[in-house]
Structures are given as structure tokens and as C-alpha cells.
Amino acid sequence: MCGVVGIVGKYPVNQALYDGLTVLQHRGQDAAGIVTIDSNNTLKLRKANGLVKDVFEVRHMQRLAGNIGLGHVRYPTAGSSSTAEAQPFYVNSPFGIALAHNGNLTNSHLLVDDIFRIAKRHINTTSDSEILLNVLAHELNNTGVMQLQPEHIFRAVANVHRKIRGAYAAMALIIGHGLLAFRDPNGIRPLVMGKRETPLGTEYMVASESVALDADGFTVMRDVSPGEAVYITQEGELHTFQCAENPSYTPCIFEYVYFARPDSTIDNISVYASRVAMGAVLGEKIKREWAHLDIDVVIPIPETSTDTALKIATVLGLPYRQGYVKNRYIGRTFIMPGQEARKKSVKRKLNAIWQEFKGKNVLLVDDSIVRGTTSKQIIDMAREAGAKKVYFASAAPEVRFPNVYGIDMPSANELIAHGHDVDSICNIIGADGLIFQSLPDLIEAVRLGNPEIKRFDTSVFDGNYVTNDIDQNYLNRLEQLRNNDAKAKADVAMATDLEMYNEG
Ligand SMILES: O=P(O)(O)OC[C@H]1O[C@H](OP(=O)(O)OP(=O)(O)O)[C@H](O)[C@@H]1O
Ligand SMILES: NC(=O)CC[C@H](N)C(=O)O
Ligand SMILES: [Mg+2]
């Protein structure tokens, strides 16, 4: 998952972009970048590996001049983790365009050849986002005009929709024009727009999550619709248009389970309320199926599961205790790039308060069990702290299928639930009992917030991919490209291609 933010303002936007990225940090911890257009119509870019606070020093911020810009935090799902694939990407023709992308294209392997043959465009990295930028650039070029009008831009986006598949919430700065943002026709990844009034006029902002708008004092106008494009000219005129032929509203349900911040509202659904609702339905299931168990206390696994766990405790009429303390200086473990890093970080990140465990039957609650890295270690910790019995509940169903839309779960074999039933997962993680939310219950909990959404992308749970273009061959290829070994090799290889991107 990545986070994107773009602003067309009346004042310098560097600080607001930085602040927006800081509150989207949970969506990507590997790299960050900002690009602005200054008063000479020059793009100013800074991107590097690392957290937002480490990537941008004062000298970089001073360089990022201008009233219009965009930013990105990266969690790689294609290519490597190297700086060369940090975003935004840039192409000089037509006009000068810089692009940032959240999501993952599912036909990028088919597009590279076409781009070279038809558009004579060279792709220098293995990032799907560089491909997306070049497809967009080619379509903008094909309009044949020097000064693009909104209809030219929207026609270009319509053609991009026709050519690319997969998930994309993307935004581009076009020199001499403005900021363009668009969302894939299934609305898999989130995108929201807002505005802020100033003495010099209205400023607009588009971002992955509403929390970025809150942080910058923008009010939410609405979500960008699946397939829709939003174009804000450099002068601050807003244009929107539905560019997809057959849009469908099928957002990724995993945003609500894990990715998004609870204080965000995505597609009119409060992430926080959806997590509480997940606790309500799972609490009822536990009541029905585990009535015979003697649970003393409900303990969340910080951070994401806390809202769900509190609700479960309320439904069960049991105490809720913060039995684990989270080290606030360690990031999210799941979105770390390699399994070794993830494993090591769990113990550095979480520590048990033994008094909450000693002699008790505890029910641990997590939002999801994906590779089982967290649950296994956390259960060991509970036992070491003296727990008598350790039961485990997951607010999401078993994750059995790879994700192809911007979450880095490329290989079914890395998933603990792949090929295992609940009893054997329970054995592997070492729990005395394990219960999962059912998929219909999860969907119901999230849909409560917006019943107009008829379907979510639930592919990691049921293997039904909303873009209808994923077959076993695709999944095999993905697995080969992105299993742990392949990723490590790609990182080493790309690291030697970097120098051209490495401006200080
Ligand atoms: O089964 P696994 O492969 O371990 O993945 C699932 C775990 O990873 C995430 O936590 P993370 O530490 O990333 O973030 P959080 O602090 O937001 O919960 C998630 O909340 C689960 O705890
Ligand atoms: N998680 C994402 O949205 C990743 C975006 C893009 N596919 C990349 O790897 O950079
Ligand atoms: Mg967690």
C-alpha cells in the first residue's frame, strides 16, 4: 500500500504536503517523495528511501518551492525497494509530468513492450508506476494539442483506463497545466478530495485518506468515484469527469481491516466504525461457539486491533486490558519488505505486561493473521508471561490468496492459512483455541457504513479478483517475481542503477 497526496494551493504547498504524508505514513514506510512546480515552471523533486521525517531535511523543503505539488509514501508491491523506484516518477515529454501511484497494475508485463514499440518510450525500472506514467504521457501526447483542455485530459484518462488493468489511485502534475488525479474503474484503492478557503481563493487537495485532509485543515468534499478523474488547473479551477465505460464500486476490504487509519472515512465508511462493527459480529460468534470456554480477559494486539478488541470485550461482558505495550518508535511490521525484518521487529515492537497474563485465560485479538509472524510470537510471549490458556481471535477471515492490487502478499505459500484449516493454523501458531471472522460477517460489518456498496474486493479471502484478469499463470509469475528471495535479489540489482536519481 502506498499513500498519495496532491495540492493545488494559493500559497507554498511544501509543508502541507509533508504534513499530509506524515499522517499517511502507515501506508508506506520504505520511501517518500515530494514534487512541486515552482514559479519558473520547473519541477522540484526530492525522493529517497526512509520515513517522511528522515527523507526531507530543511534544505530539501526549501528547494520544494511552489503552490502546486504532490507527494508519495511507498510500500513496494512491484519491482524493488530501491531508491530508483521511489516515487514520484518523472518524464519530460509531453510538457513535463510527475506521477505518484497507489496500487498495482495487473497487466504491466504486457504493457512494457507496447510502450517501447508504439510509443518508443523506455522504462528504466521494474516499477509498474513508471509504466503507468508512460502510458498516461503517451495518451496526453496523442491529443496532439499544446494547451490541454479538460476534455483532452479526460479523453487521455479514458484511454489509460482502456489500456491498463489493476488497482490505481494515481495523481500527476503536468507542467503548464495542473494536477490530475484518477481512480481505477473498480475503485479498489481509495482517493478523496477536499478544499480549503483562503483570502486568495479556494485551494484543493486530493489524498489517499481523509485523515490527510483533516491534518491540513481541508474539508472533505467527497470520494473520487471509481473511474473518475479530477483535474485542477494551476489557476485553481476544478474539473471532474467520469472517464470509465463501466465503472463498478468494489473497494478493497483490507483497507478497513488493516491498512487505513481508524480516523479516516473511506467511501463514506468510517474505518473506526467498521472495526467496532467487526468486533460486534465477532463477539457474537465467540459467544455462540465458545460459550464453554472460561475466558478471563480480552487483550488486543496493538495497534490496529484495539477498537475491535474493546467491542468484543463489551459483547462478552469481560474486562479489556492493554496487556502488550507497543514501542512507538517501531513502525508497522506487516509492511516491512522482508520476512526476516518482520520477524525481528515483533519482539522489539511489543512487550507483555506479565501481571495481565499470569494465571489467566486470555483471549488475544488481532485484526488479521497473514503470515502468522505476529500471532506466533505474541502467543509465546503470553505464555512466557504466565498465561494459563491463550485463545486467539482474528477480526478478518483466513487470508488464503495472494493480493495483486497493492498489498505485498504475492505468494500463497507465505500465507499461514494457505492449505491449512483452522485447527492446523491453531497448532502452528500455538494457541489453545482459534476463531476467525466469517467473510459474510466481515462484509456485513463494513457495509453497515455504506449499504450502497454492493461488493468489495475480498480476493485475499476468497480468490475472486474484481478485475477478472487473474489466473493461475499470473499468480505463478507473481510468486516467482516477488517471493522473498527474488525481492532480495532485485534490491541488490536495482541499487546499482540508482545514481541518476540520487540528488541530495
Ligand atoms: O500475521 P502477520 O503476517 O504477522 O500479519 C498480521 C499482523 O500485522 C499487522 O500488524 P502491524 O505490526 O503491521 O501493524 P499495527 O501496529 O498497525 O497493528 C496486523 O495488524 C497484524 O497484527
Ligand atoms: N503499495 C503500492 O501502492 C505500491 C505502488 C507501486 N506498485 C510500487 O510498488 O511502487
Ligand atoms: Mg498488528
Automatic annotation (TrEMBL):
Binding site for Mg(2+): T304, D366, D367
Functional pathway: Purine metabolism; IMP biosynthesis via de novo pathway; N(1)-(5-phospho-D-ribosyl)glycinamide from 5-phospho-alpha-D-ribose 1-diphosphate: step 1/2
Essential cofactor(s): Mg(2+)
InterPro entries, per the entry: GATase_2_dom (IPR017932), Ntn_hydrolases_N (IPR029055), PRTase-like (IPR029057), PRTase_dom (IPR000836), PurF (IPR005854), PurF_N (IPR035584)
UniProt cofactor note: Binds 1 Mg(2+) ion per subunit.
This enzyme's EC code(s): 2.4.2.14
Keyword Cytoplasm (UniProt): no
Active-site residues, record numbering mapped to chain: C2
Keyword list, A-Z: Glutamine amidotransferase, Glycosyltransferase, Magnesium, Metal-binding, Purine biosynthesis, Transferase
Record's catalysed reaction(s): 5-phospho-beta-D-ribosylamine + L-glutamate + diphosphate = 5-phospho-alpha-D-ribose 1-diphosphate + L-glutamine + H2O
NCBIfam families: purF
Function: Catalyzes the formation of phosphoribosylamine from phosphoribosylpyrophosphate (PRPP) and glutamine.
PANTHER family for this protein: AMIDOPHOSPHORIBOSYLTRANSFERASE
HAMAP family in alphabetical order: PurF
Entry protein name: Amidophosphoribosyltransferase
Lineage, opening ranks: Bacteria, Pseudomonadati, Pseudomonadota, Gammaproteobacteria, Chromatiales
